[in-house]
Amino acid sequence: MENCGERKEGGVYDRRLDSVVAAADCGSFSKAAKQLGVSTPALAKRIETFEGEYGIELFSRTRRGVFLTPAGASVVEDARAIMRMSEDVLRRAREQEAFGGTTVRLGISAACPAHAALAAWPRIHEADPSLHLELVPIGDIYDDELGVVANLGGSVDIIEVSDVSAAACEKLWGGVCRIETIVAEGVSSVTLLPRRPSSAAARFVALLENVSPQE
After folding, report:
1. Among residues 39, 64, 93, which one ends one of the domains?
2. Which one in 62, 71, 98, 210 has a CA-CA gap of 20 to 30 Å to 117?
3. In percent, how much of the chain has pLDDT > 70?
4. Are residues 129 and 179 located together in one domain of the fold?
5. How confident is the model at residue 6 (pLDDT cuts 50, 70, 90)?
6. Alpha-carbon distance values, 89 to 7, 22, 192 (Å)
7. DSSP-assigned states of every residue in 144-189
8. What is the per-residue pLDDT for 215?
9. CATH number for position 82
10. Residues 146, 193 share a domain
11. CA distances (Å), 87 to each of 7, 80, 81, 159, in order?
């Protein structure tokens, strides 16, 4: 069970999900209402209208509290993902506003450590101080169910692949992303980008190959 602590309502999703998740975390409509700063009847009404609108029962109501039904547990699990995604959407929008759309999100993992990109970053930033770099942990790029590569452009702009040839990358992902071979820091590697990369991502890749190592 998640922590029944302070929670803020809001986001680009059905806000009734805040009430549903809070009630699931707290096991009580009254505690969830207090957490969200609303009255208990108002919170109960939100949940009841959600249940009625979609024809599903989310909670079993008892004198000991409220408990998720199997359908409710499924909704809450997906709701948490939706809420996290909403936070990412708003964060990226604020970054776009703050930095003029010049933040590049570089996906990194144990299999994709992005050595060349990270080593070259100081010189890239020196060449174009308007660029900002954000490191984003990613899952297994070879797991189709995770869809890390297929969803490039969502939470990640660029992935650097150093242990697979460009030809192999074309076979794996040629239909879902843009693949470019670069030589940076004296090492040949492959960058994976969305089919329509942001101007900042395209600028980053161009500089990645063109900046010269310091003597």
Report:
1. 93
2. 98
3. 89
4. yes
5. low
6. 18, 21, 22
7. TTTTTTTTTTSS-SEEEE-SS-HHHHHHHHTTTSEEEEEEETTEEE
8. 40
9. 1.10.10.10
10. yes
11. 13, 11, 10, 22
* pLDDT mean across residues, the chain: 86
156 and 70 fall within a common domain = no
Same domain, 88 and 136: no
Is 80 exceeded by the pLDDT of residue 66?
A: yes
The interaxial angle of helices 115-127 and 199-210, nearest 10 deg, is 100
- Provide the pairing of β-strand 187-193 with 178-184: antiparallel
What's the pLDDT score for residue 16?
94
The predicted pLDDT at position 214 comes to 47
67 and 104 co-located in one domain: no
Q: For residue range 81-114, list pLDDT tens digits in order.
A: 888 888 777 776 776 666 556 889 999 999 899 9
CB neighbour list of residue 89: distance below 8 Å, 6 or more residues apart: 12
Last residue in a domain, options 78, 93, 108: 93
